[in-house]
Predict the structure.
Amino acid sequence: MRDVALTVNGRRYELELEPRELLVYVLRERLGLTGTVVGCDTSSCGACTVLVNGESVKSCTMLGVQADGLEITTIEGLATNGLHPVQQAFHDHHALQCGYCTPGMVMAAVSLIESGEAKDEQSIRLGLEGNLCRCTGYHNIVKAVAAAAGVS
Amino acid sequence: MALVEERTEAAIGSPVKRKEDEKLLRGRATWVDNLAPLGTVYMAVVRSPYAHARIRSVNLEAARAAEGVVAAFSGADLASEWASPLPCAWPVTEDIKIPPHYPLAAEEARFQGDGVAVVVAESRALAKDAAELVEVEYEPLPAVADVEQALAEGAPLVHADLGTNRCYVWTLEAGDPQGAIDAADVVVTRRYRQPRLIPNAIEPRSVLALTDPSGAVTVWSATQVPHILRFALQLVLGIPEARIRVIAPDVGGGFGSKLNVYAEEALAVALARRLGRPVKWTEERSENYVATIHGRDVVHELTFAARRDGTITAVKSEALCAMGAYLQLVTPGIPLLGAWIYSGPYAIPNYSVTFTGVFTNTTPTDAYRGAGRPEATYVLERTMDALARELGMDPVELRRRNLVKEFPHTMASGLTLDSGDYEASLERLLEILDLDRIRAEQEERRRRGDVKQLGVGFSTYNEMCGLAPSRILGAVRYAVGGWEAATIRVEPLGSVQVVTGTSPHGQSHETTWAQIVADRLGVDVDEVEVLHGDTAVSQLGMDTYGSRSLAVGGVALWHASEKILQKARRIVAHQLEVAEDDLEFAGGRFSVKGSPERGMTIKEVAFAAHAAHNLPDGMEPGLEETAVYDPPNFSWPGGAHAAVVEVDTETGETRLLRYAAVDDVGRTVNPMIVDGQVHGGVTQGIAAALFEEGAYDEEGNLLTTNMVSYLVPSAAELPSFETDRTETPSPTNPLGVKGVGETGTIAAAPAVINAVVDALSHLGVTDVPMPATPERVWRAIQEAKGGAR
Amino acid sequence: MIPAPFEYEVAESAEHAVSLLAGREDAKLLAGGHSLLPAMRLRLARPSLLVDIGRIPGLAYVRDAGDAIAIGALTRHKEAAESPLLAEQCPIVAATAAQIGDPQVRHRGTIGGSLAHGDPASDLPAVMLALEAQLVARGPDGERTIPAADFFTGVFETALSPAEMLVEVRVPKHGPRTRSTYLKTSRRAQDWATVAVAAVVERSNGAIESARIALTNMGATPLRATAVEQALAGGASIEDAAALAAEGTEPPSDYAASADYRRHLVRVLTRRALQEAASR
């Protein structure tokens, strides 16, 4: 077991972790932040995407102990009041159906937009290559991200 | 017959934003895997690495001794738990072979991934660790994974005691197909192999079972079918249904893969009962690839007979359909869901369809989006193009010539297309496409000999969905009914609670159902709360699959609304002392004709109904009504789709440039949600055409074992879609609605493959197998160059 | 989905990491974890000890080292992709790093981790081979420099000893006449290469004077396309030279693609890569 301190959604947590605990399970089962979900076991689907120091990361491919000292933002911490503009755009453009991939997709989109890489439809499509959705065919997700990024 | 009323309210037909969204967007959904009551233990399943093996022994000692382990069992250890095997609810013929299928194999494993033992431990990780310590001694047996090989002389038998791998043969014949073929100007026969598809709902399956000492059971499951699961759990476990509560909380997609009753669901309940602890199991994705049903895996031979002018006179289909190693809930019935539409939207008088169900040492197949209809539509639409080439005719013109033009139309297969306007969809599609420009560019590229060639492919389709008239289901030996139930409760202060028997997992019923009720009762959409997915809340229900929810469950809701209005009208008439006929209802208020100031709102009626101070004699208090609706016919959507592709003739890579869809799904309750269903459906059809294939090697080892090797496409592989609708209301239900959940998947794959073939047709390519991988496209070009057929 | 248990140590420095590795045959270094953790989750890899080098200060950099650009082993793909120095002096590295995996992978995965993993399907090894990069390893006895040509020894195997750690890679700066390109085919954007070609060419009067070409996923290691290079040096046309691209390769035949198709594809990609490099 190992002592770690991480900041999640602005709150500091001191935890004793088994090294093999993946960050996604630390978030879900230690901190009760069940918005971040697991969709695969090969780092393919992106459902577990969170922000680590502001950048999108698949939390299934990071150990909890690796997050020691880092700042994590999960879907629950994206907006404290109302919806974040990306969440709002997903709602406005019907960019979610079952909603299981949605938290990861939203976090990936936030990172993409904040890095300035969401420039047009093609860059948005490429920028979301690490997140799989089985319901929407991505059509409305791409529209929502474009709207949130202020591009057409 | 026109049951359809003019709409008086705005809620139906509006792109109302979804009520479901906020909790999903904020990470506050309730997935089964979020739940774990104190004391929960975790189950891990030990699975056979062999496609076929005798289980010589199972040694659980090391596992039982491992840290945190509560219990471990072999298949034999649990044999006494089962009152009967896992159910198959669709024995399609009288002489179908149904091998017993228990939650754990005890003597023989029959596919890679077949469960042979379980371990229960204090944590997910410890269960996984201990499962690795279970020592199973296997004696590998010969296996067969391919339907054609499975029927060959001397093939290994999946179930030796059956003496054959042939599960059933089912036929449907009408007219004189052989006579028409013999008399035809042109006969075209083509063979097609449609690969296995792995559904890949992004939420893996998960189940949590809780028992109490009295024997009552609560099961949370990521399922599409809580009601069917409850029914099945009685059969498998011998627990009366009345003591079982099944809850499907938020469910992350299904596409048919959660329309089932799975071994792990029965195991979790059995172990909870045995151990007196809540038992939870959550599937890993790699596990999902072997333990959750697959779709498709069908080999077809399709024949068209036609006159020289393009009139098709007969269709004949013979198909070998993989069942997998066992029959899951509706495995044998899946091909039948397409059986009546091998003539598609075309008027073809002579008809013959034969399905042979075949056991193989593979994961069982079952319903995957479209279920039977994509299979039928694919071979039909591919063969339309083949016939067009044979006749030297434009493929659009050939389709146009054969489309059904008058409705209702009774098809050779015996069912009646109640409505549609297939030509209108096709003409609208052509407008969207600007086909002349595409053809001109294609010609230009061919003339220049470009490396990248352009192709356009079509698919005009119809489908039968909205399962379904119970009498027809009974006639085709489906075990249960096809009705749906809805309850509406107008609460004393006027908010409205709706209980539906459907079980949404992405289909937006909370919004759409609220729109229907708001529209009928004249209340706000926000005032309507839709409850679903809990058998303690909705005892009556047949769940969500087969594009049935709106066309059956939504219509049940319409009928329940009518009952509410009838009762409310009686109360108002009584209290205002007027005749019921003297009342009119609009905007949520009853008023007296001619004196509109005299009236009562539906909310006032609700209060009066609950106060019960002044009700008509004999009337029960309250304002709650239930309707159960059994549709008189299937629902018949249709439409026309087209794909435009660019094929790199050197590498074989295909890029989908455009995809256009014009669908007729009847009236739309929420066009935004309908468009979303089309986008998602189309994408799964495109994925089948270009990317996805569940592949086995000759020994029955799955080669595409996870999301790295099985290619679910991302946004980067797809274009935005061009969609539009034509609208012929369904005359068989008062809402005028038809199903929409599967149309895209049914239509898309042949449009895309037809486009790939079209791009290469000038090189002599006439067929490209599905999925059209770069290598397969390249090989098709090489073969055409080499003069091979 | 959950790795088998292991011990975990955080290295303070490269020396510390190497000392932690010493004497533990089945220990593994953990940097970004994007090669190792996926294998551990499927329990295909079960190291008894992970030495986390991700916190070692001073190992994430891209800097001018005279004739070469020095890239610290802990430089993340995203940092390499966005490095102005690489874009100017050795653009093929930046362009290739931008194509690895997906954005999330590029945010965590490191240049050093990707190279040390020795995956014949990953992108950077072929690029390093074509660039004739130098890889710097630290072991118990100090540092040594390994030419890329000697570094990749087999499938998931490199010249690193179990107690060595890759600390830096040095890529030569492009000259004024150097052009380079990395051309990759994959089924989906996020997938590993079916086949890819790294081409670094020297141009003279609008023609290719010489070229160094390396191939991804055409054998157990990245391979130099020597026959193509020799043909070009001997004055062959791009078309004729590229036709030799599959010579000496032993591509895998797997579900994703047959060996035959990979041989065909590598010839097409080599020709296109050379044409692209020549025309820039």
